[in-house]
Amino acid sequence: MKKDIIFAGVGGQGIVSAAAMIVTQVDKLGFQCKQNEVHGMAQRGGSVVCHVRISDGQIYSDIIPKGSADLILATEPMEALRYIEYLSKDGTVITSNRPFKNIDYPDEKDIINSIEKRSNSIVVDANGLVDELKNERVINVAMIGALSKAIGIEGLKDGILKDVEKRFSKKGEAVVQLNHKAFEFGEAAVQ
What pTM was estimated for this model as a whole? Predict the structure, then answer.
């Protein structure tokens, strides 16, 4: 088993935390994994990308070559397109439909249409999630839910949900449950 995953978004969307959560849980399940991250101008809303490689065998590099990623997970649709050249021809792109408009943003529908032209694309309705849960900060957990299901590693979901409980328990049970709902929302987007 081998999975090469590009995590993409902008500063403040929890990309590095999402990648670290996956790496931590996959490591606990006995897989080899490597993570590489580039922050750029993240503190100013700039692009953030993490390369995560998971395997049941040896991994020699933490960088994913262009054209070979199995998955792209993007918390923002334009960032999905920015890194699409990393995706293999059979790879899957999973993106939120909620843009982060800190620049003169292209037409959102055109971006989503470009992503959906790929045979393997999953667009998570983050706009609907935010409307339902009244909290934008849970989008990255919803995206982790979608990714967890797409990866399909037994035990990964349980490990992530325990991690969510641990991370958010100091903020109260309501916050933990909010993040569990977000996880399930993202998971439901993957067929």
Answer: 0.92
